[in-house]
Amino acid sequence: xxxxxxxxxxxxxxxxxxxxxxxxxxxxxxxxxxxxxxxxxxxxxxxxxxxxxxxxxxxxxxxxxxxxxxxxxxxxxxxxxxxxxxxxxxxxxxxxxxxxxxxxxxxxxxxxxxxxxxxxxxxxxxxxxxxxxxxxxxxxxxxxxxxxxxxxxxxxxxxxxxxxxxxxxxxxxxxxxxxxxxxxxxxxxxxxxxxxxxxxxxxxxxxxxxxxxxxxxxxxxxxxxxxxxxxxxxxxxxxxxxxxxxxxxxxxxxxxxxxxxxxxxxxxxxxxxxxxxxxxxxxxxxxxxxxxxxxxxxxxxxxxxxxxxxxxxxxxxxxxxxxxxxxxxxxxxxxxxxxxxxxxxxxxxxxxxxxxxxxxxxxxxxxxxxxxxxxxxxxxxxxxxxxxxxxxxxxxxxxxxxxxxxxxxxxxxxxxxxxxxxxxxxxxxxxxxxxxxxxxxxxxxxxxxxxxxxxxxxxxxxxxxxxxxxxxxxxxxxxxxxxxxxxxxxxxxxxxxxxxxxxxxxxxxxxxxxxxxxxxxxxxxxxxxxxxxxxxxxxxxxxxxxxxxxxxxxxxxxxxxxxxxxxxxxxxxxxxxxxxxxxxxxxxxxxxxxxxxxxxxxxxxxxxxxxxxxxxxxxxxxxxxxxxxxxxxxxxxxxxxxxxxxxxxxxxxxxxxxxxxxxxxxxxxxxxxxxxxxxxxxxxxxxxxxxxxxxxxxxxxxxxxxxxxxxxxxxxxxxxxxxxxxxxxxxxxxxxxxxxxxxxxxxxxxxxxxxxxxxxxxxxxxxxxxxxxxxxxxxxxxxxxxxxxxxxxxxxxxxxxxxxxxxxxxxxxxxxxxxxxxxxxxxxxxxxxxxxxxxxxxxxxxxxxxxxxxxxxxxxxxxxxxxxxxxxxxxxxxxxxxxxxxxxxxxxxxxxxxxxxxxxxxxxxxxxxxxxxxxxxxxxxxxxxxxxxxxxxxxxxxxxxxxxxxx
Length: 951
Hints:
Number of helices: 29
Structural class: alpha+beta
Largest sheet: 7 strands, antiparallel
Radius of gyration: 39 Å
Number of strands: 38
Distance between the termini: 101 Å
Strand content: 15-25%
Oligomer: single chain
């Protein structure tokens, strides 16, 4: 036998002492040593102690049985578990569960050239005479040699087969047993310890697609049953002649159990039941095969695995054949791990928690007696599971001796609704019940009327007889009273983590990671989506639109464009062309034909050849920033280290009261509504933040909060803490709610103006995104020759009813590319801001204000020898601007710095070369009077800080 699991557990827990202290920490004193005695229950005198017996720590409680309990027995006592359950619990807790090791659990594989006799598909096996105890134990505690013989199950020494003119021989060993089910015309090889699950099964010979394992054995059992019934019938008739009651005999076996795999089936057979199993748990049981089975049994039970795949397959089978009864294994089974580190999920796993083949120090006679008791108890438990197994047929025929009628079976009705995806979500905060319908990964909110309508329509489609349809229409059990008892569900809507984001499409679940994009057609890892958040289009992966150049440019400002099939990508390219007027107007060809050809060829080009290298790079940085921003919004995961509000604005410098608009800022966000649950509020409302309820549509399921078209002096401070902390939302006619930071939406601001000037902490909270004025509105106040809208650029409207599915798919793929790009950046802790020169200039204009700007432009005009390139008394300059003293010196200084930074003829305000610095200020003493000065230096002019020349 292999090394005992209990010994491994004790070796890993200081001979069991860690287990005892887990349950009785009071056994250790404050000095860290074991107490001589301690209390396990309230008692006057401590009566429990810990002692070492035969190399294992034990607990003796003289106030109880007085027996020295091993640590595993302590676990059994304190957690109410059977021995095997306690053993698996401790193995998982202390990390000693048996695992599959690819370096150890491997077969010997040899390849040779095939001989002329070894044609393609040829095979040969070497069968062992009988299985070893270890092989039987691996199949399951209830699997015996007799069970294996009955179901033609064998252990192999080796098998070989020919493929592509090579003959491969796979040889078993103690760490890699190989089993075979002889299915007649083909053989099914089972290698349970294969490290790669893809190699667990192999077929030799031509596999029959509709083969049902165990059907031949069922037929034999049925024939034997009929013969036995015939013999019993003769005895009954003789008894009847003697005036005794004649028994009615069934022509069918009581039941058969449809299992999900080999080991489940063999253990079910070990319990005394007739198992059937398909070649995979997702294989289809066709109507002919089902009819063949039901000719021989009264009830067919289905025993599915407990994972998502098993549950889905079981539901489909129950819906297809409404008389099949589905067995539900205990939910606590998934709390134990198997030898692959996965939650236990099937019949063999359950049996393994009920029965142990051996225990340490146990005699053979004791083992047999204990095994017999455990088996009998397991049979009783399994029978109880059969008794509560439910079919989808929710009505029963009742014969009361007078007439036959139909009745609704409430328990079966609830199961019917569960199988068809109906459930309820209960909000623990206010006990509000919401009914839902789950279809694959989609969760739809419904009413009880929707449930009633579904049952009625189902009965019509099924063409049930009039009596049953009337029963459904008239029964009070098809109503709210019963629906209140529908099973609660708790679908996991967490579609993201730090390293991935799941996107839901009409036909696909797409999981995006930094290094992969995975597709599936069902709930991915048990993650669901509300139906309204599922993108109502199909998805099919195509070649990435771009790839980041991480090797030559670690800062990732460089990308390689693979194609621009996506309209959204093309839109973002043109929205990043800040030098389009230089390219297409200032440097335009004087030959119309050449100009037309250039514009056509470079219509969607971020790096047109007319641009300088610096201009090309700057435009590409704007584009890459947009790709980063789109990916950031696509990723719902929130990190305090990457908690940013996105501020989307325009690059064009305008006068203070002039705003642009029409550049496509909101369009960029609007497209993301296909993926993200977005709530929009009007940023033009100057009293927005005075309304306590302007966010009342925001919940934990809101992904993005869009403040659209924020006004010039927008109250950004109101949202300051929301970006990096919990979000408090006030609801009308309901209590306010604090949404945790991790579940609160990311905030996006669009504005024609730059973000409010602030300190460094404000800047750290903003991810900026700058739009060119490629898309613009021509007015009498600007110099644009024509209006260019997005529809004008493409020649048709984007995202309307006429937008082709092919185009949608290209845009969705591009969005997934952006998300993946962001995850790659996030992994490298890279934040990609756009080039901010023009934005900073606009922000400084905003800081100055138009009045100060006009005054300063005159006061510090180029060539002004009075106010430039000399020391000026700061208070005197402020008084020249603000004679009434309405402005603080701090406010004046802030504006002055903004002006000097923007003025092209000014090199520096208070250059470092000036004398008299004190704590960052120019402080000089003149005629015994200490004053603060300023010095505005122009380009190419030497420093002249002679105090005698100051004014």
